[in-house]
Design goal:
The structure is a single chain. This protein is of the alpha/beta class. The protein has a domain of 112 residues: DsrEFH-like (Hypothetical Protein Ychn, Chain: A). It contains 5 helices and 5 strands, in the order αβαβαβαβαβ. Strands 4-3-2-1-5 form a 5-stranded parallel sheet. Strand 1, helix 2 and strand 2 form a beta-alpha-beta unit. Helix 2 runs parallel beside helix 3.
Amino acid sequence: MKTAAVLTTALIAAALTQPALADKFAPYGTAKVDMHTMPVTDTVFDVNYEDPQKLNTLYFFVKNTKKTTGGKVVVVTHGPELRAFAKENYEKYQGIMDKMAELSKEGVEFKMCNNAMLAAGFKAEDMHGFVTVVPAGFPEVAYWQSKGYRYINPLPLPVKDVRYIDQPGLRK
């Protein structure tokens, strides 16, 4: 009986102090929600990744952007990631290229900087058929912007599980 009374008192005290604890961790209140409809917006992605594996994250950025904006999408690639688009590297990057080809089938245009491609030792005929080689990457981005496309520079930093980063003892 005595244990039950102590336990009941502890539970009541915890329930009464819970709002106070919540306020302690939320001195600025709670976020507002504005899930407004986006107007149709065409976008151009400026892609320059050191690691071709980061194209996996680009895939989701493009999918989410296209779904939300409903507009046309152009991806301009002009960095080390371009090696993943080379036919000779298909076996190594097959999963990534299959995702990029899927985007292409959905209407995403892939433009590759000729300067970067040549500097990496490739020629246009070395690249997969859904890629269009253009004179230069940065001018290509500017070209699409001049046609009304909105600029996106997607840093390949996924947010999955960031809630648990730097928190000892929590899921990593």
